[in-house]
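Slide 14.
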Amino acid sequence: MKPPAWHIALTLISIALALSIGTASAQSTLLTARQDWPQFRGPNRDGRSAARGLLQQWPEGGPKLLWSMQGIGKGFSQVSAAGDLIYVSGLVDKQGMLHAYSRDGKLKWEASYGPEWEKSYPGARSIPTVHDGLVYVASGVGNFACFDALTGKSVWSSNVFQLYDAPQVDWGFAESLLIDGENVICTPCGKKATMVALNRKTSQQVWASEPLGQGSSFCSPLLVERGGKRIIVSMTEDAVVAFSATDGKPLWQHAYANPRNNHPITPIYDNGLLYITSGYGKGAIGLALADDGLSVKQIWEQRRQDPAHGQAVLVDGYVYASSHQSAAGKWTCVELATGRLAWQAPGVGKGGSIIYADGLLYCYSEDGVVGLMRPNPEACQVLSTFKVPLGADQHWAHPTVADGRLYIRHGDALMCYDIAK
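Slide 15: predicted structure.
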């Protein structure tokens, strides 16, 4: 017997709903599975990628090179990856240029964000920050800009050095901008303010801290939570500093300086402990943050770990980094709780940068060697290495791992490697 029309209609509706739910579920899974690197130091500013399913060892000569390009401009900024695009900045004909490429290396758009640093070690420094459809970048001479992430259309541009009466920085301003809700945070260290929060859509001031009378030291700030307070931690040339994320009120300072007033390492925070380090022989210190977040106390000092601008990564209670002067460019492992030096070893070459992805450390030495290391507090374990084939000048840009790909920038050259299993 033929079923009634209403029964057929209900069946068709049920099938359509099932297909719709299945499609939505698949789309949700796709979005969740995407492993972006949308800002300096990755999703949480801790040097750790969300990527999974990566090669645990590379073939001799390195992983497969998917594509490469030259002509992105001079600079030391790493790649940011968000959605279907990657972003990288460079100095081209005296201008800072922000480039957006598809994941297969096709140029989608490029836009100038104003004059870029041309003096000592010329080139772009700031890593683009991508958030909610917008991308933010700062130049070495204090010009900040915001663009539509998909089209490159300019949203706003502002010279923060001029606004807050900040001096030009030796070697160029190198801070990567921090997004906190509707605010973009930066540290001009000017006569009118040390740190400021601007509305990220309009660039209008939300708050400005009082000036501390301390110069910029290239540090990109970190947002932490402690005792119900949201705290922005960074470094000036003289101290580790903390501000209220709500109104910019200075909360505390801890004296910390090296001979070059150069502190580009973003602090690492874990369960009430702050890891602070720098180059030029200063070494690392551990700070215990009070339960209410309003003070700190130094609990250890370790001079053997001083990675200059290569940053550091915390894995299972141990901090891994290269060293600049104290350990003659060797790679080091330090216990976060105590500051104990677990080991120092040649690693993948003299000095360099480090990130973490899928259980392994990705190291890029200043000798131009990229290597895989296994995080192990008992010994340095190098698994694979390869030499960067393209580019010129210093090997200072950090690696980026996103969606099964490794991005290496060397000067005006960009390389993309397949590291998925």
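Speaker note: Residues 194 and 212 are 6 Å apart (CA to CA).
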